[in-house]
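Lecture 7 notes: from sequence to structure.
We start with the chain below.
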Amino acid sequence: MSFGAPLFLLALTAVPVAVALYVHGQRARRRGEVAFAAAPTMPSVAPVRPGWRRHAPMAVYALALAALALALARPEATVAVPEDGVAIMLAIDRSVSMSATDARPSRLDAAGAAARDFLDAVPEETEVGLVTYNDRVRQIETPSVDRTEVRRSLDGLQASGGTATGDALAAALAALDRSGDGGGNRSSEGRGAPAAVVLLSDGFSTLGRDPLAVAREADRRGVRIHTVALGTDEGEIDRPTRSGGTVTRRVPPDTVSLERIASLTAGRAFAAADELELDAVYEELGERLGTKDERREVTSAFAGGAVALLLLGGGMSLRWFGRLP
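Predicted structure tokens for the same chain:
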């Protein structure tokens, strides 16, 4: 919290002055009561005494006075506001390792549910697209404020195949390019508003382009890549064997490579062991991406609060004593 006119904070000194005057007045009133009737006879002279209610309205008025003094100083706060022209690509790994059930009901199901929550969390003005991939890019949805197709694609995810993370990142950058060209006011190179890729994966990249090389290209274009490593070191999947049986294979997430991808683009790297942690990660990203911090004057909030306190204090006084103090 900061203030546009901090000198007006001196008006806060009126609060202790008013409190001191009120205390002095109460002591004078108490002396008058004693002069009117001796203490032993007070219960019969004034059998009903207001107690704490006598002072409650004045305490509320003191808070109102403090709020008005702060309003005069023009308080300012940093708030998150939607940013125009932001485009985000979700890149979701749907390789066979995403069928592991260490995140319930499976890693892929948890990823899809968290992505849908992410769509609800980002501002409506933010364009969101989607890339799904395994051993190759399977589906691309160009960023748009209409998220119907993205949601439909998330509902049909199935785990299979290997992991081509570099190809997916390259496809995400290309989709951002197409989105900028189509809008006529943005491209991923030299764009005015920021663009970002949110990459969720659990496995080592085994096919296609080197994801680190693509990350360096994203950095040159000013596109940040935020990564989420899903799963635990104990995650396992069953793979068929040539003899017709199955073999259990452990599939820990590749946190090191994902952290490296994020660091190359000044993005953030997260690790989520289960669906609850993944929801928290996507919620945080949804609140951060597509918004910017902006200083806003909140004088009206303090002034409105002061008026509300004045009305409350007046209402308490009228309710209990039938008059205003």
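Points to note: The longest helix spans residues 14-36. The chain has two domains: 2-78+296-321, 84-289.
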